[in-house]
Design a protein that fits this description.
By secondary structure, the protein is of the alpha+beta class. The chain has one domain: Glutaredoxin, CATH 3.40.30.10. The protein is built from six helices and ten strands, in the order H-E-E-H-E-E-E-E-H-E-H-E-H-E-E-H. The strands form three sheets. The chain has a six-stranded mixed beta sheet, with helices on one face. It has a two-stranded antiparallel sheet with strand order 1-2. A two-stranded antiparallel sheet has the order 4-5. The chain is globular and about 40 Å long. It starts with a helix and ends with a helix.
Length: 177
Amino acid sequence: MKTLVILTALVLLSTQCWGGVFDKRLLAEAGLQELSGDAPDFTLRGVSGETVSLKGQRGRVVIIHVWATWCKPCKDEFPLLERLYNDFKEKGVVFFPVAIDAGADIKEVALFAKGLGATFEVYGAYKSDISDRYWSWGVPATYFVDKKGRIIARALGSKDWGSVAVRRVVDALLNTR
């Protein structure tokens, strides 16, 4: 029985990661675009006034979600992002939902997000160095960064953040060295 459990665990691990290499099939199943390379650092200021940076999150999985208050698909996917956040916040996943509203007051943006059901902190791209590094196409745009600070994937447009496939990606990132 013990041998069967060990073999099953090895098979499961080999389908998600092996030796720290991410299984790209998971990305395809989740409808995510594969990316590769070091994630450009940025600094953000949240409602609390605290400054955070991507570099300061090394050793943790990071999900960067670029959105806007005027974007209907962004608003529609907030409940699923909230569920994803709640399922992974205690497992070491860091969420950076960044609103790109030009000149928007971060407190107003935070109230807007709270009205959509968000309990996570939101950040504003205004007066930040994130926009030119992570936003050029449109919104929403979501990036997945591994524990070593490498961008693994992105989603352009809205996604089903509650899907099993997305959860497998996040789980695999958590289990990759």
